[in-house]
Amino acid sequence: MGVSIEQKTRKKAQLPPFWSLVEAHGSELLAHARRLAGDDAEDVVQEALLKALRSYPRLAHGEHLRAWLYRVTTTTAFDLGARARRATALPAPSPEPAQVFADEVAPFEKLIEPLSPALKETLELRFVEDLRYEEIGRRLGCNEVAARQRVSSALRALRRRMT
């Protein structure tokens, strides 16, 4: 047969007052929280006791209350730790991609400025637009081998200019 409402009420009535649990186990919960959360232990215990207090009236029985408080404290420490990691894991806002690109390209353009227009175009296609040799050949109206040769020639000219 099932448990009557009177029996359920009697079991709930056997729960000690919540403040007595805090008095009996508060210091050991704080020590446990220090092992889990370090400097944030007091925040962990406070949050854990609030959670426990909210759910205390719904407990079906008064057995293993100390273990239950430890479980609430442990879960709270893990939750607060994960929340803190997520908050610090957010990346800082990065500059606009167009600005980054402009900042990177400007020194390159200055470097290749004295080269002929054909050599500049070849190097820009390869290193600014990051095209494959096949596509460079298509843009320059030649085959892939000729595109490789043009890039190589442009790099040699650039090296000569730098030395």
Structure characterization notes:
With 163 residues, the protein is an all-alpha fold. The protein has 2 domains: 5-89, Rna Polymerase Sigma Factor, Chain: A (Orthogonal Bundle); 97-154, Arc Repressor Mutant, subunit A, CATH 1.10.10. The chain has helices at 5-13, 18-37, 41-55, 65-89, 97-112, 117-128, 133-140, 144-162. Helix 2 (18-37) runs antiparallel to helix 3 (41-55), helix 2 crosses helix 4 (65-89) and helix 6 crosses helix 8 (144-162). The longest helix is centred in the middle third of the chain and has 25 residues, at 65-89. The protein is rod-shaped.
Q: How are the elements arranged and paired?
A:
Blueprint: H1 5-13, H2 18-37, H3 41-55, H4 65-89, H5 97-112, H6 117-128, H7 133-140, H8 144-162
State the end-to-end CA separation.
97 Å
Any idea how many domains?
2
Radius of gyration: 35 Å
Fraction in helix: over 70%
Find the structural class using helix and strand composition: mainly alpha
Number of strands: 0
Element-level helix/strand string? HHHHHHHH
